[in-house]
User: Fold NADH:ubiquinone reductase (non-electrogenic) from Kribbella capetownensis.
Amino acid sequence: MSRNAPNAHALRHRVVIVGAGFGGLFAVRALRRVQVDVTVVDRVNYHLFQPLLYQVATGVLSEGDIAPPIRDVLRKQDNARVLFGEVVHVDLATREVELDTLGGAMRLPYDSLIVAAGAAQSYFGHDEFAVHAPGMKTIDDALELRGRIFGAFEMAELDCEAAERDAWLTFVVVGAGPTGVELAGQIAELSRRALRANYRAFDPRSARIIVLDAADTVLPPFAKPLQRRAHRDLEALGVEVQLGAMVTGVDATGLHVKRKDGSTDRIDAHTKIWAAGVQASPLGASLGDQSGAPVDRAGRISVQHDCTLPGHPEVFVVGDLMSLNRLPGLAEVAMQSGHHAARTIARRLDGDTTERPFRYIDLGTMATIARFKAVVSIGRVHITGLVGWLMWLVVHLTFLTGFKNRVSALANWTIAFLGRGRRQRTITEQQVFARTREIPQPKGGVAERET
Amino acid sequence: MSRNAPNAHALRHRVVIVGAGFGGLFAVRALRRVQVDVTVVDRVNYHLFQPLLYQVATGVLSEGDIAPPIRDVLRKQDNARVLFGEVVHVDLATREVELDTLGGAMRLPYDSLIVAAGAAQSYFGHDEFAVHAPGMKTIDDALELRGRIFGAFEMAELDCEAAERDAWLTFVVVGAGPTGVELAGQIAELSRRALRANYRAFDPRSARIIVLDAADTVLPPFAKPLQRRAHRDLEALGVEVQLGAMVTGVDATGLHVKRKDGSTDRIDAHTKIWAAGVQASPLGASLGDQSGAPVDRAGRISVQHDCTLPGHPEVFVVGDLMSLNRLPGLAEVAMQSGHHAARTIARRLDGDTTERPFRYIDLGTMATIARFKAVVSIGRVHITGLVGWLMWLVVHLTFLTGFKNRVSALANWTIAFLGRGRRQRTITEQQVFARTREIPQPKGGVAERET
Assistant:
């Protein structure tokens, strides 16, 4: 606890871990009984349980339910400290990480480095879409979308033309992967069930929810029967599934779509959500430049079989930033690769320097469409419907357990799923002010806003 | 549900209610069985249970726990609709309310009007303090303070000079009324208990929490024995109570204080919270101009004995915006005056036009200092300690009941009070970016932030 503590341990092996997502967190946990000094750095103060982000965006869970503070998760791990800041550069030659904090710049020397910086939303070269169609990668994204979704229903309740009301009641989710499918399903449940009797000028069940994708199936990574089942489940909920549809433009009041047959059309919709692609952290490009490792179009860096950079056995790249054996960008891959990197460091300190390749064990994938409806794939076994949903629930609660949020998340889920309501529907004033810049004002003009 | 519905009811008496705080909400509820058309207007989409706002600021509860959507609370009240917008003007001559919405300007004609627009934070003419010392009146305030409080501990964990660390670990609450006392008590509990083992560079128990006030007692409206007890309880928690201390300046890194003996000094503290005064809605001044009713320094408008404007029996002013019989700005006063206004409208429609003055029934006041510690005053009866705290808990849970948030709030309270943690500690990135403009950067300079 003394200010000289770092010097007292100067001889201990220093491990720096960049990012406290699934990859980083599993790496630091795997080092808990190893004689090292671990420093975990993240630009946010929480570990994000990303698979449930869509539940924050739709008012089921609060941000705290899925985002435990990193330092609280690690409070009992004495060999680890957590620093709040953004890594702007890794210097492979001097073995230092450059950190940008609110208190100034810092340089962190390392003996071993695990880069688990993850990925952000990708707009495939159209970053200008972002302001009109927020992504689904961060707590800020989810809170922004929550404000937009509930705000859209508020707007529809104001006196307005029928066409304008229809545009407020149209929700377009771009991307039919697990996130897009889950989000569309939740918005459908919201409008069909949770918001019942809340409005006087319209029936919320009349809301139109569209999920669209350039691919010709929903849930591309899943097996055909599960795709068909998910497609059917979505339509039963009232979601329009539009496949072979490429978004060519997004603006404040709608989006332009090019169909598979070459035709184009416009969808009038105030609320657009982008769940279509990811772009790895910019750290990847820099690490590629310095080490000569190839970086793919999505910004992911090709690593050796043991997750290290070529020529830099002390540097590991794991999770969404890693390109290895065509592994998908799943939480499970991040966890296992983070764990592998940490175990490799521990083995080396024990004198075992043999190189062991990372082997991913596929524990199965799942996606939930709505309450009581999920698709689960474990090897060749497919499970759907209520049983699939119960499996999904058990797995997600088990993961949250480690973060001590199980009791409250369970309470909130019980209320939200079995009850009628959505507890988290707050639109902050900050969001309202931000949006006044974006929403086109009618010609009648608006009186000056008082402060 | 048809678009002509408003015309179909054109002969019904139209009641417009401005604001859905305690005054507005109790007014609309009191009209639920009356043959009127009620329109409730608010600039936010939630009813704020303000007495628990400090629990959002300190991570105990989520915003949704204390801010149920207005339209969900009123979903079963068929004669009421809710509009999301800000009232910028009331025209007493034409009997219209001018509404500024994200969809444009609207004019709402009324037959009876209840103005329950409440009050905002007052900086006593020093609005420039606000950026450095946010108030405690809105959900946005509470979320901003949550980010600053947990962010301050993050900053202290970064490598920094001892003096700088002390300034990050000093929290100053300006104002020793119920809000200030409750907030200071919660920050003390946070640092003494909830954040245990979270940091490596310092012990969070070393945090300094100061509550200061120009008055010479804490909790001015309470009786002397309760003030003494609250003062003692605060000090036992480790809170420094500084009385007779007037704030003369606030900046990013501290504040200037003038003591009762005329001396002045500076307190170095990055986190300042303003809980010192209120200023009624600007609508008060405009209503005073039009009706000739006096408006006091705090912006409150003097009403007739039945809460109406002089010369305008169809316009009621209730709650914090109302000045009548020196009644304090309490939730209970707002509820009872809102109810009185609604009942008066209902009586008149029944043909009873006798004027009945508003009579406030004092049901007691309470303030909580920490878990298991509260002071309660019911007439001449004083209750303190655990019994007082249990009363406080029952009363607050009972009020939340009506909003259906009881189960989850109870679950969250149980976890937070009896357990060790604070579930809601998210710092949004939006807040971090906003703060980079305010925090002075050290001379070493900071590398460019990547986006």
Summary: Confidence is low (pLDDT under 50) at residues 1-9, 439-451 of chain B. The domain at 127-276+371-429 of chain B is CATH 3.50.50.100 (FAD/NAD(P)-binding domain).
